[in-house]
Amino acid sequence: MDLLKEINRMQDYCSHSHIEKIEDSWAVFYEEDGDTAKGFVFLYIYKRLPYNPEYNTGLVAEIGVFTFPEYRKQGVCTRLIKQAIDYAKTNKIDIVADCNNNSYPILKELGFIDSKDSRVWLHCSG
Q1: How far is Cα 81 from Cα 52, in angstroms, rounded to an integer?
Q2: Using CA atoms, how far apart are residues 6 and 60, in angstroms rounded to an integer?
Q3: Is the peptide bond before 53 cis (omega within 30 degrees of 0)?
Q4: Which domains does the chain possess?
Q5: What is the pLDDT along the chain (126 residues), one digit of tens a residue?
Q6: Main-chain phi, psi angles of 49, to 5 degrees
Q7: Is the C-alpha dihedral spanning 125, 97, 4, 15 positive or negative?
């Protein structure tokens, strides 16, 4: 399976721009079905100042979750998130998520808690 090609297939499905490479700071988890991916979980890892209680080590990852429609409701997302959580625990990485209506209940079921932070955005890229 061509991982970059499959990530860009996901990008197409979501009407997002293609990427040219997988960054070294990303941990990518996926399940395969032959030459295609069933879904992905990404940990976009970065370092920040430690801030208790939510950023204990200062090592943080934003989680991204996607399952292709034909594989939804089969546990793909849950299995991949569990793999990402195991990776994060091993590497002492705190995980944050900006959830949509599909990912929020799954993440809550897997032990994620609502943040005390008020998150806001300022798009300076466009």
Answers
A1: 24
A2: 25
A3: yes
A4: 3-109 (3.40.630.30)
A5: 999 999 999 999 999 999 999 999 999 999 999 999 999 999 999 999 998 877 889 999 999 999 999 999 999 999 999 999 999 999 999 998 888 888 888 999 999 988 777 777 777 777
A6: -65, 135
A7: negative
Helix, strand, or coil here: 102?
A: coil
Residue with tokens 């079921």: 109
pTM of the model: 0.89
DSSP letter for each residue of 37-95: EEEEEEEEEEE---BTTTBSSSEEEEEEEEE-GGGTTTTHHHHHHHHHHHHHHHTT-EE
Q: Residue with structure tokens 């890229």?
A: 125
